[in-house]
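Notes continue from the previous slide.

Worked example: a multi-chain complex. Inputs as given:
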Amino acid sequence: MFKTIFKKPFFQPAGSGPSAGAASESADQAAELLMTPAALMPLTLEEARVVVRYMQPQLVAKGTIFMRQGDGRDTGFMLLLLSGEVTVEMLVPSRIEPLVITLLGPGSLIGELGLLDGQPRHATCVAVTPLRCAVLTREALEQLMQDNAPVAAKLLLGISVRSGARLRELTDKLKMYAQLTQAMEQEIGSRVNP
Amino acid sequence: MFKTIFKKPFFQPAGSGPSAGAASESADQAAELLMTPAALMPLTLEEARVVVRYMQPQLVAKGTIFMRQGDGRDTGFMLLLLSGEVTVEMLVPSRIEPLVITLLGPGSLIGELGLLDGQPRHATCVAVTPLRCAVLTREALEQLMQDNAPVAAKLLLGISVRSGARLRELTDKLKMYAQLTQAMEQEIGSRVNP
């Protein structure tokens, strides 16, 4: 669905002309959300503003499925969520309803894995509310790497840190499931041999 | 346990002097393993060799616990495994034996999350066999970012891609567990109300 964004204008630098108002506010907000304070070498606000100039503003209507599990063609972008909420869902063979993996809010990066490795999308993302986003395409990232490698390196470090936080989170969930299934196994076992 | 590595020599560039033999072979191997072909903008062999010059060779004896779950002090390094095998284990409250999360072989990156965000180690890593590794410290990464940002950016992109692959893997495991617990719930339910 984001094929159209390639023709869209980029964010303008903050304070660039009288008509810049709302867009420039979004650009500032995008820069602040990109900073990833958890990283040990985070982007400064000024560096984050450089990244934002390679991004495009995008509105998404409520209810839109803007990323589809298994889609291997439309992988060339990631979104930074500025406002609104998104559910991340996965189809599970034995269930009719998809499994809701997580709910994402402002500041979340969405689709960064596909952007970097081009693999098919691993989950489906649905806009639960209207969304305001900043889009980074693969072409724009490549251009940023060429134009300003130090800033690109810090951005990629920030992306790694976010993936890392999700990895830790998922590992904890997995640990919880391992405990749960063990308890259930015991429950089933005790009924077979009471 | 890797506090000592900070005094160790770095890998020498390939073919640097007559005594370089084994170390230079390891350096070449490290460079090849760093290339991450899954990334869309992978390191070239030449660029990977640049990274390796910021790494230090390290041998680890069989049975060594070289990373400990919960350790928040010794997080300033990651390992690239050149040869040998490592188990990644987690302590789970209800179990006496730790849960073996995965077995890692040559080419694996270990500890890259802590390197980038300084958070306590999330799992325990044990050398199942003797290991040959290449170590990248946080100081060396910062130096690489200063000296050669384009190569650092591609390295960080490669790290992101690897984290991404692990995220996809963990998500699949989680999906499997979700199905398993659902089946077990039904099993338990059917016995209560046969």
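Summary box: Chain A has one domain: 2-192. Residues 35 and 43 of chain A are 5 Å apart (CA to CA).
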